[in-house]
From TrEMBL, chain A:
Taxonomic source organism: Penicillium nalgiovense
Claim: Transport is one of the keywords in the record: yes
Record GO cellular component, one term: TRAPPII protein complex
InterPro entries given in the database record: NO_sig/Golgi_transp_ligand-bd, TRAPP-I_su5, TRAPP_component
Protein family membership: Belongs to the TRAPP small subunits family. BET3 subfamily.
Name used for this protein in its record: Trafficking protein particle complex subunit
UniProtKB/TrEMBL annotation, chain B:
Homology family: Belongs to the TRAPP small subunits family. BET3 subfamily.
Pfam entry (one): TRAPP
Organism taxonomic ancestry: Eukaryota, Fungi, Dikarya, Ascomycota, Pezizomycotina
Name the record gives this protein: Trafficking protein particle complex subunit BET3
Gene Ontology cellular component terms for the protein in this record: endoplasmic reticulum; Golgi apparatus; TRAPP complex
GO biological process, one term: macroautophagy
InterPro entries: Bet3 (IPR016721), NO_sig/Golgi_transp_ligand-bd (IPR024096), TRAPP_component (IPR007194)
Source organism superkingdom: Eukaryota
UniProt-annotated location(s): Endoplasmic reticulum; Golgi apparatus, cis-Golgi network
Keywords: Endoplasmic reticulum, ER-Golgi transport, Golgi apparatus, Transport
UniProtKB/TrEMBL annotation, chain C:
A Pfam family annotated for this UniProt entry: Sybindin
A biological-process GO annotation: endoplasmic reticulum to Golgi vesicle-mediated transport
Protein known as: Trafficking protein particle complex subunit
Signal peptide: none
Keywords tagged on the record: Endoplasmic reticulum, ER-Golgi transport, Golgi apparatus, Transport
Lineage: Eukaryota, Fungi, Dikarya, Ascomycota, Pezizomycotina
Bias (Polar residues): 28-37
Superkingdom to which the source organism belongs: Eukaryota
Localization, UniProt: Endoplasmic reticulum; Golgi apparatus, cis-Golgi network
Keyword Lipid biosynthesis appears in the UniProt entry: no
Family (UniProt): Belongs to the TRAPP small subunits family. BET5 subfamily.
InterPro entries named in the record: Longin-like_dom_sf, TRAPPC
Predominant location: endoplasmic reticulum
Assembly description: Part of the multisubunit transport protein particle (TRAPP) complex.
From TrEMBL, chain D:
Key word Transport present: yes
GO cellular component terms given for this protein: endoplasmic reticulum; Golgi apparatus; TRAPP complex
Keywords associated with the record: Endoplasmic reticulum, ER-Golgi transport, Golgi apparatus, Transport
Protein name (Swiss-Prot/TrEMBL): Trafficking protein particle complex subunit
Subunit structure: Part of the multisubunit transport protein particle (TRAPP) complex.
Source taxon at top rank: Eukaryota
Family, per entry: Belongs to the TRAPP small subunits family. TRAPPC4 subfamily.
Length: 254, 199, 250, 171
């Protein structure tokens, strides 16, 4: 299976620091960033304890106040808003900010789902969570709809739908009735089209790209009487992915 | 969104019963989401200011200041605390109540100056810096203060309650120091803008 | 119940009467009795007393804007009754003739609306309006400060405050008076000299050993009045206590 | 959900400079004014509130009681100038409650200077819990909204929605 086109090699920053170049399509030129853990350059505290000595699941169930996320996210939106004009650019920028999270969360998801193999983590999809990466679109979407949402927001997403119209077979929809990121956000009337959950769309995009499913994800407001901030994430897979889907379908790979 | 969609799976049926419960606000979020979000903010700043770490520090402080001016209202509303009598009480309030509510950590308050106008906050655990390793470009560990947003938050929130302070990091584990320490000093009490009190 | 100050404003928005009682600050036992003495002993005041005239202007400004706000919000027939802060409570009563009565008390005092009405009906109308000597208008508070009105005001507040506080037993005014109780009688417009003069005149009269209580006796400046009053006025005080609270003079 | 919120007429929020930033009527009971009148009302009340604070009666301390040497005070608050307030334990505040024949106004001022004026009918109980909840909703849906600029008029749809829902009985 071809290596995922834009999977960036792990930067020396496991989390912050320089994000992979935003222009994801062309391959990253990060080969020269040395990956060695104890590179001479980085000083470490005298007790020689670094983040690599800590267990990855240490902060698995750690919780912080919702307010801290709300303030950080709000400031991120304000900062992005000052640097762009127009809703599309703002959503694009939020998407770009979410993308690296998707890449990192993907590995965390697999580490946690295979190591504990507890069924609770596996989504309600038919097969138990596959030990390796999802190969089919459906399993990927279930991974996002269940474990990823549970990891991020503590509950599964609300609905997962596939477009039935023949001319858009590559469109899927993940629905969240009350996205946590938008709880405190009220866009002004002139920006009513804006949906700040584009950040989460970026995360989904990061996860899909990380799995080798090149895709475009966008967040759309679909308010209802009961759920005024209901959001739908439209996932549009690229054509190479659809070809591969057909080939795998014929090969009977689940 | 004109085309119609076939439902693949609604969320697990047994959860439908909890619909009502789910609607109530859960005011806790996954710590990793907050950590990763902060990480991407810093990453974006490093990119926008193309690794000029002084500017990144300044911008983080400014962002923290904006947050602080809003966060104080949330803090007052949720904790219902009254005005602090003196700076020492303010320091305890910050460490034991403020940081506890928002970052679920309690830094220790030490190194008071004799005139009680300066103190230090020692962070044994800094959730913002989880999973983080500074860029190995030989400059970051000397110039970048990764959690500098916290200094801005303190400055912004205390200014809203008529206390002008200055805060900066003195040491950070990410830089290879042994502790993460922030130095906070009181500049002055800001008089109320209301008409001057009777003498 | 502690009364801090009392103001009357006429319809020209002028303070025609102002009375402040500054109870002893740190009386450890129970309520500091609002001992009231007319006429400030001029020498007694060590501290700088805040200039009292802008106080009444501030109070009037507050009361006036609140009254207008209430009229605007609640409708023309709504009237402002009282407001409280964390330290004191201000009671307000306005007559149809736009004469405004304002009283500042502590937080524990019940509604003083009735009391203010009583002061208006029984005292102000009786002893100021109907007093042939005092002019119909009171520029600068002229004519409001007649003894009759003052005296009855004391009684009224004293009795009404004691009514609420169920009489402190055995407390004599004399023993508590340690020189720094002072009540500033300030009538805007009257020069300080004239005020001192009226106070001295009362002072000499009160010192004479046998004080026959008469209606027109002006209370002395330094509280001696209370001691005499207690001696000669005992039956009066007890009489006031059993009688309904607002019958003031025999 | 306090059942007696039916007596809540309207709410006004004033920023620390005295500017009106929010006004909303929940139930008729007061005369409704033009926004301009509310602006004027907010401005005057801001001034009046400050004055009510400054006319707090001051009780002279004859022999200046040795102010308890709070050894640990940093820059001490302004030294007592020979006066003490009626109840020294409680910090001085401006007007908190205003009673009239037809309505009762509760004024809650936050430490940051923002004032919440709640107009209720004179008999409505637990006004403090109502206004505390409003402050929490304000801290959540206004302060955490990145599109709200501090000290500016509040136009946050989520705040209106949650406030309306809470006050009209639906949680």
């Amino acid at each position: 299976m071809a290596a995922p086109p834009r999977h960036a090699t792990m930067q020396s920053i496991s989390n912050g620091g320089i994000a992979p170049g935003t222009d994801r399509p062309q391959a990253q030129q990060t080969q020269q960033a040395q990956l060695s853990q104890q590179s001479p350059g980085l000083r470490v505290p005298s007790n020689r304890k670094t983040i690599y000595d800590r267990h990855l699941n240490r902060s698995r169930n750690a919780e912080l106040s919702r307010a801290s996320f709300a303030f950080l996210f709000g400031e991120m939106v304000t900062y992005a808003q000052r640097r762009v004009t127009g809703i599309q650019d703002l959503e694009k920028r939020l998407n770009e900010q979410g993308y690296p999270l998707g890449l990192r969360l993907l590995d965390l998801l697999f580490y946690r789902s295979t190591s504990t193999s507890s069924s609770a983590l596996s989504s309600s999809s038919t097969s138990s969570s596959p030990p390796n990466r999802p190969l089919r679109i459906i399993t990927l979407l279930h991974l996002i709809h269940g474990p990823l949402w549970r990891l991020l927001f503590g509950r599964a997403a609300d609905a997962l739908e596939h477009s039935v119209s023949p001319d858009t077979p590559n469109e899927y929809m993940i629905t969240d009735n009350d996205p946590m990121v938008n709880t405190y956000i009220s866009a002004p009337r002139d920006m009513s089209m804006l949906n700040c959950a584009a950040y989460v769309a970026g995360i989904i995009e990061g996860v899909c790209d990380g799995c080798g499913f090149e895709t475009k994800v966008s967040a759309h407001n679909q308010p209802t009487e009961l759920w005024p901030s209901r959001t739908v994430f439209l996932v549009r897979f690229g054509d190479p992915v659809m070809e591969r889907e057909k080939v795998l379908e014929r090969a009977g790979v689940k | 969104m004109t085309n119609r969609f076939r439902c693949i799976s609604v969320f697990e049926p047994e959860l439908i019963g909890f619909l009502h419960m789910r609607r109530t606000r859960v005011d806790k979020v996954n710590a990793e989401l907050v950590t990763l979000t902060y990480g991407t903010i810093v990453a974006q700043l490093c990119q926008d200011y193309d690794s000029n770490y002084q500017d990144v520090n300044k911008q983080l402080d400014k962002m923290g200041y904006n947050i602080g001016m809003r966060l104080i209202e949330d803090f007052l509303a949720k904790s219902g605390v009254g005005r602090c009598a003196n700076f020492r009480e303010t320091a305890d309030m910050i460490a034991k109540v403020g940081f506890k509510i928002f970052l679920n950590v309690t830094p220790t308050v030490t190194n008071w100056t004799s005139d009680n106008t300066q103190f230090s906050l020692i962070f044994e655990d800094n959730p913002l810096a989880d999973f983080v390793e500074l860029p190995d470009d030989g400059r970051a560990q000397d110039e970048l203060w990764f959690s500098n947003i916290l200094c801005g938050v303190l400055r912004g929130s205390l200014e809203m309650v008529q206390m002008q302070i200055e805060a900066h990091f003195v040491s950070d584990v990410l830089r290879g120091d042994d502790t993460t320490e922030m130095r906070v000093s009181l500049v002055r009490y800001i008089e109320d803008e209301m008409p001057p009190e009777e003498e | 119940m502690v009364v801090y100050s009392f103001y009357i404003f006429d319809r020209h928005a002028e303070c025609i009467y102002k009375r402040r009682w500054l109870p002893r600050p740190t009386s450890t036992v129970g309520k500091s009795r609002s001992d009231t003495v007319s006429g400030a002993a001029p020498t007694g005041l060590g501290q700088t007393v805040r200039s009292t005239d802008d106080d009444s202007k501030l109070v009037f400004g507050t009361v006036f804007s609140l009254r207008n706000m209430v009229r605007k919000l609640g409708g023309e027939d709504d009237n402002f009754v009282s407001f409280t802060t964390s330290q004191y409570k201000l009671h307000y009563y306005e007559t149809p003739t736009n004469t405004k009565f304002v009283m500042l008390t502590d937080l524990k005092s019940p509604s003083m609306r009735i009391a203010l009405q009583q002061i208006y009906i029984n005292l102000f109308v009786e002893y100021v309006v109907k007093n042939p000597l005092s002019p119909t208008e009171h520029p600068g508070g002229v004519g409001v400060n007649n003894e009759l009105f003052e005296e009855s005001l004391e009684q009224n507040l004293e009795v009404s405050s004691r009514e609420q506080v169920h009489v402190r037993k055995g407390e004599t005014a004399g023993s508590h008076r340690s020189g720094h109780i002072e009540a500033i009688i300030y009538k805007s417009g009257i020069s300080k000299a004239q005020e001192r003069h009226s106070c001295n005149r009362a002072h000499t009269a009160a010192d004479s050993p046998v004080v026959k209580h008469t209606v027109l006796r002006a209370p002395a400046c330094d509280g001696t009045f209370w001691r005499e009053k207690k001696i000669t006025g005992a039956q009066h005080r007890s009489q006031a206590r059993q009688g309904h609270p607002y019958r003031l003079f025999m | 959900m306090p059942d007696n919120t039916r007596g809540v007429f309207s709410l006004i929020i004033i920023n620390k400079a005295g500017g009106l930033i929010y006004q909303r009527e929940f139930q008729s009971g007061l005369r409704n004014l033009s926004t301009n009148d509310y602006l004027v009302l907010a401005g005057t009340f801001h001034g009046v509130h400050a004055i009510t604070r400054s006319i707090t009666p001051k009780i002279p301390i004859s022999q200046p009681a040795p102010s308890p040497a709070t050894s640990s005070t940093g820059i001490t608050a302004p030294a007592a100038s020979g006066y003490s307030y009626p109840n020294p334990g409680v910090p001085v505040s401006g007007l908190d409650y205003l009673e009239t024949d037809k309505f009762r106004m509760t004024c809650f001022q936050t430490l940051t200077g923002t004032k919440f004026l709640l107009f209720t009918d004179p008999l409505t109980g637990s006004v403090d819990t109502i206004i505390q909840k409003i402050y929490e909703l304000y801290a959540d849906y206004v302060m955490k909204n990145p599109f709200y600029q501090i000290e500016m008029p509040v136009r946050c749809e989520a705040f209106d929605r949650h406030l309306g829902a809470w006050l009209r009985g639906r949680t």
